[in-house]
Amino acid sequence: MKRAIVTGITGQDGSYLAELLLGKEYEVHGFVRRSSNITRPRLDHLTSDLELYNQRLFLHYSDLEDMTTTRRLILAIQPDEIFHLAGQSHVGASFEIPESTCEFTAMGTLRLLEIIRDCPKRPKLLHIGSSEIFGLPTQSPQSETTAFNPITPYGVAKAFAVQMVRVYRESFGFFACNAICFNHESPRRGESFVTRKITRAAARIKLGLEKGLSLGNVEGQRDWGFAPDYVDAFWRMLQADQPTDLVLSTGKLHRVRDWLEIAFAHVGLDWRQLIKLDDRLVRKADPATLLGDSSLARKLLGWQPSTDFEKMVRQMVDADLAIAREDLHAAPKNC
After folding, report:
1. Which of 35, 53, 32 is nearest to 44 (CA)?
2. From the centroid of its chain, how far is CA 283?
3. CB of 136 within 8 A of CB of 290?
4. Which residues belong to CATH 3.90.25.10 in the chain?
5. Can you give the pTM of this predicted structure?
């Protein structure tokens, strides 16, 4: 039985990765920040399964700035693989909290690399990079050879982490990879992200729980994929014979406007009558069009995205409708 550590296991990608690894008969150890919520809805279906929880799924409190605890846990667990997903992942928020973004995302990765460097048997490492490292790219689409040019604190922190993983791979012989991920979404996406704001608003407006939504730039474009597809690629990268960095993307661009049109049409509404555009919500510095070239990942891993854009958006709206109906039934009734 392989043993894996997943940092950031309570997040969108971490929860899907836990499911995948458990399905492949791994023993999974998730690292959870001490400040993390006690309630972990993305993992509830796993932690409530007594045949899994504390049998093959274990959760440990560990902050990546606390090297002593993290080192102790890694040496005790002796993992075969480490999937490093943890970090401040909201690009917009990184402008408000740049120091903590760099502390968790950049320095947290370096600390983890230093711990692995001292392990008697070094585990394989997968670090989750981001298309934000390209910022204002010099070419389109972007591939593994595209120059870094980040323009957000989050992108700068990720660029540092990606480069450090490369340094340790080349200098110390680590089996360490960077998955350079373009945007990927799912019903488990956090509510602070624009994609989830849209699908949640469509559901709640349809059921009369909200009246509208304010957004910034609806013409912004991104290469959006489906999170479970990307998680599958994470696992495949550590099963390869040689470590390498790979871009994970769909190779297709969509606008924020497309999210609005599909999500609101799915519930029979016209978004133009319900969405207010607010210039104050436009991001200070927004990357240019980010479009990924994942041809190398498709060639080396036999991987390709399996869920198309429209299906993903509708699935997210359906999930938010189910949540909204629960909220509607739970709301106190007027006398």
Report:
1. 53
2. 20
3. no
4. 194-221+253-289+308-330
5. 0.93
Check: CATH 3.90.1520.10 for 3-185+224-248? no
In 184-260, where do the E strands start and end? 184-185, 213-215, 221-222, 225-226, 246-248, 254-255
Per-residue pLDDT tens for 130-165? 999 999 998 999 999 999 999 999 999 999 999 999
pLDDT at 139: 92
Distance of CA 16 to the CA centre of its chain: 10
What the block records as the tokens of 310 is 């429209």
Q: Which contacts of 93-100 are long-range, i.e. CB under 8 A and separated by 24 or more positions?
A: 93/192, 94/152, 94/153, 94/154, 94/157, 95/152, 95/153, 95/283, 95/284, 95/285, 98/153
How would you classify the pairing of strands 254-255 and 221-222?
antiparallel
Beta pairing partners, 312: none
What residues are annotated to the active site? 130, 132, 154
Between CA 50 and CA 48 the distance in angstroms is: 6
Q: Contact, 69 vs 62, CB < 8 A? A: yes
